[in-house]
Amino acid sequence: AFTPRVFSGIQPSGGLTLGNYLGAIKRFVDMQGSGVETIYCVVDMHAITVWQDPEALTRQTRELTAGYLAAGLDPTQSILFNQSQVAEHAQLAWIFNCVARMGWMNRMTQWKDKAGKHAEKASLGLFAYPALMAADILIYHATHVPVGEDQKQHVELTRDIAIKFNHDFKTEFFPITQPVIEGAATRVMSLRDGSKKMSKSDPSDASRINMTDDADAIAKKIRKAKTDPEPLPSDLDGLEGRPEARNLVNIYAALAEMPAAQVMADMGGKPFSEFKPLLADLAVAKLAPISSEMARYMQDPAEIDRILSGGADRARAIAAPILKKTYEIVGM
Ligand code: ADP
Ligand code: NA
């Protein structure tokens, strides 16, 4: 039996979106202070699986940390740190590289999407990314990982690695981690195309709400969001086949912290010309204070670095004995 422990991370690959906020950060905050240890990471080693300008990487690492803090993560309640500062992640990842199979990695949809037809030119790190992610999680014996829907397959691979390691070495050393994918906004979609997820890497800025967008930009993007001409239905079944409408309802529900069914009950029958301004006001009310707090934290980068360094010390205190024991099990 493993003590429940929560771990998750986000890449400092530039610009947090509303998808990252609702699918990840907001849920990290919700899990904090529930009596379970919470460990949240800035995964810079994942970010460099694709090219990152060094100065930008440093800045984005601080920005993401500022986003964590501004959204309500408290470094006295959660462990907040930067992945590369805790070398045990890379050390365990190597062992997992030797446990995981090439075929498992080949099946990852994110690998196929990101490497595309140019797999020969992709970095070896991009291919091995899920084994590093397994190490991130298992170096803390984390039992629960809050993530968006797009990360489900990677957490399943983490489970496969734990199962194979435990089997190969005749041990029960690693827990079989659960993904925690819940709430109204586990997959926030593009505002321009209801079949694509909202992403910081989408070339169209109008497709996403950035955490740093001001009130005018947020209102404009929501006003211009793609929708169909029908008014909102009065129940969830009425959203069938209407992905853009469903997405806006889900965003509203997650921001308002109410079930989507309640949004339908309240808003059913309204045309988008009425619903969109309500959604824009809600988004501005929830996001503007976070983005101004982020800007305030960014004025003191030294303080951010101190927080990350303190978090790394606490993370290492958990990780080091788990790595030591892993080496013993492997015979190293
Ligand atoms: P991105 O996918 O934006 O490049 P990451 O891969 O670092 O960022 O993901 C960080 C977290 O944000 C993960 O838990 C991921 O599932 C979540 N996430 C990213 N985009 C979305 C989205 N559109 N909807 C819900 N969650 C998302
Ligand atoms: Na992602």
Automatic annotation (TrEMBL):
Signal peptide: none annotated. L-tryptophan binds at D136. One of its GO terms (biological process) is tryptophanyl-tRNA aminoacylation. The keyword Protein biosynthesis applies. Pfam families: tRNA-synt_1b. A motif ('KMSKS' region) lies at residues 197-201. A motif ('HIGH' region) lies at residues 12-20. PROSITE patterns: AA_TRNA_LIGASE_I (PS00178). Gene3D superfamilies: HUPs (3.40.50.620), Tyrosyl-Transfer RNA Synthetase (1.10.240.10). Its EC number is 6.1.1.2. GO terms for cellular component: cytosol. SUPFAM superfamilies: Nucleotidylyl transferase (SSF52374). ATP binds at Q11, P12, S13, G19, N20, G148, E149, D150, V188, K197, M198, S199, K200, S201. Keywords: Aminoacyl-tRNA synthetase, ATP-binding, Cytoplasm, Ligase, Nucleotide-binding, Protein biosynthesis. GO terms for molecular function: ATP binding; tryptophan-tRNA ligase activity. InterPro entries: aa-tRNA-synth_I_CS, aa-tRNA-synth_Ic, Rossmann-like_a/b/a_fold, Trp-tRNA-ligase, Trp-tRNA-ligase_bac-type, Trp-tRNA_synthetase. Belongs to the class-I aminoacyl-tRNA synthetase family. HAMAP family: Trp_tRNA_synth_B (MF_00140_B). This is Tryptophan--tRNA ligase. It comes from Salipiger abyssi. The gene is trpS.
